[in-house]
Amino acid sequence: MKKLIVITGASSGFGMELAKEFGKEGYPMLLLAREVEPMEALNIESAICKKVDVTNREEFESAVREAEEKYGKADLIVNNAGIMLLGDLANQDPVEWKKMLDVNVLGVMNGMQIVMEDMKERRTGTIINLSSIAGLKAFPNHAAYCASKYGVTGLTEVVRGELSSYNVRVLSICPGAVSTGLLGHTTNQSIIDGYNEWKESIGATNIKANDIAKTIKYAYDLPQAVSLREIIITDTMQDA
């Protein structure tokens, strides 16, 4: 019997592609996002779709517990929900800093804490956090975004060490430039244009969100004793 999969940010991008991949094999799923309609439009029979803000811990946990009552304890959580508000630190609105840190870091911490005690007790389970190549190296106009994703990379490593003796896997996925709706969060049009021009100039336009989803599913499908601790995934043409 397949076990419960929890995916945050499942209304678009990597999260939606993950829902499709796991849905093909009939996994019971809890799909979470701020917009429920795109998730429901997938028409995945085994999926519970909930409108949830991952920064609201009570709301987040309530949805997980409801799904667990129906499908059993979560065996995998993919903390995918995130926002990308690129900007020059010298003049970027600090409100954007807080939004990114709240969603990209605190939302991930909420997700981990909600499932980790049960995983420790059962001595099995997988936590997968979506970081970024910007959580490993610096890019122009990425200061606050890098701060959030370096945070995800670091906290993933800490919790991996804390849960390894309980046979619980904690993985960090670090994608490079991939065509999703993430860039659309940025409010500075000149930065958006520059980012797209850079991506086009190096030819890094072939990798798709589904490629990331398939890689994540592959990492999960490996035996519990096998932990792909940190996976960096980029278009072959991306040189930075």
Strand composition percent: 15-25%
Kindly report the CATH topology.
Rossmann fold
The CATH C-level name is: Alpha Beta
From the alpha carbons, calculate the radius of gyration and give it in angstroms.
Answer: 17 Å
Helix amount: 40-55%
Instruction: Compute the number of helices.
Output: 7
CATH architectural group: 3-Layer(aba) Sandwich
CATH homologous superfamily caption: NAD(P)-binding Rossmann-like Domain
Helix/strand-derived category reads: alpha/beta
Architecture blueprint of SSEs:
Blueprint: E1 4-8, H1 13-24, E2 29-33, H2 37-40, E3 47-51, H3 57-71, E4 74-79, H4 94-122, E5 126-130, H5 143-163, E6 169-175, H6 189-202, H7 209-221, E7 230-233
Parallel strand pairs: 1-2, 1-4, 2-3, 4-5, 5-6, 6-7
Structural overview:
This protein is α/β, with parallel strands linked by helices and 240 residues long. It has a single domain, classed as Rossmann fold. 45% of the residues lie in helices and 15% in strands. It contains seven helices and seven strands; from the N terminus they run E-H-E-H-E-H-E-H-E-H-E-H-H-E. The chain has a seven-stranded parallel beta sheet with strand order 3-2-1-4-5-6-7, with helices on both faces. Helix 1 crosses helix 7. The longest helix has 29 residues. It is globular. The mean pLDDT is 94.
Features:
alpha/beta; 240 residues; 7 strands; seven-stranded parallel sheet; single chain
In short:
With 240 residues, the chain is an alpha/beta fold.
